[in-house]
Design a protein that fits this description.
This protein is about 50% helix and about 15% strand. A four-stranded parallel β-sheet has the order 3-2-1-4, with helices on both faces. α1 links the parallel β1 and β2. It has eight helices and four strands, in the order βαβαβαβααααα. α7 crosses α8.
């Protein structure tokens, strides 16, 4: 992969998605963090512009803070704040950028909240704009070697079983 998009807000799950997408892209790659900012249609033009400018600064600072924790060298990072509705605006950015990778964090909500609030992750799993790989945390804990091999195969990375085992052993913490 060379081009990636991550849906970024200030949540922990979206910051985790950013870190994982960053780790999947090469140093020559490009990762765009996209924040969809929903505004009330009742705001005056000046107030709308001020709120968008403030959101641009906040997301820029968040991305700068996260970038400090990421290994270097890594893919180029940039951010974009788009006014609009979440899935429609993100669909437009995806259509324009044509990324090979889309990373979205998922909030853990109860069934009722999930039903009422919907889920961006569920939307894109149902109608994916690109290849989708779902790796469950539980599966990674149960068999990290199999999960890593699945991820590497999905990304087209050629490795031996010994290399996968070496990576699993290196990353083990218990």
């Amino acid at each position: 992969y060379q081009q990636g998009i991550v849906a970024l807000d200030s949540s922990l799950c979206s910051c985790n998605a950013l870190r994982h997408a960053y780790s999947l892209l090469p140093a020559s790659g490009h990762l765009q963090a996209v924040n969809i900012f929903t505004l009330s249609g009742r705001l005056a033009k000046k107030e709308t512009e001020e709120r968008l400018a403030m959101q641009q600064q906040l997301i820029g600072q968040l991305l700068d803070d996260e970038a400090c924790t990421l290994p270097q060298p890594g893919p180029q990072l940039e951010h974009l704040v788009v006014a609009g509705t979440l899935s429609a605006s993100l669909d437009e950015v995806i259509a324009k950028r044509q990324p090979q990778l889309l990373a979205i964090g998922r909030h853990n909500r109860g069934v009722l909240a999930q039903t009422l609030l919907s889920s961006l992750a569920q939307h894109y799993l149902t109608k994916p704009p690109c290849d989708v790989l779902v790796v469950r945390y539980e599966d990674m804990r149960k068999d990290p070697g199999a999960a890593l091999a699945k991820i590497l195969a999905f990304t087209g990375t050629d490795v031996t079983a010994a290399q996968v085992q070496e990576a699993v052993d290196f990353a083990a913490y218990d």
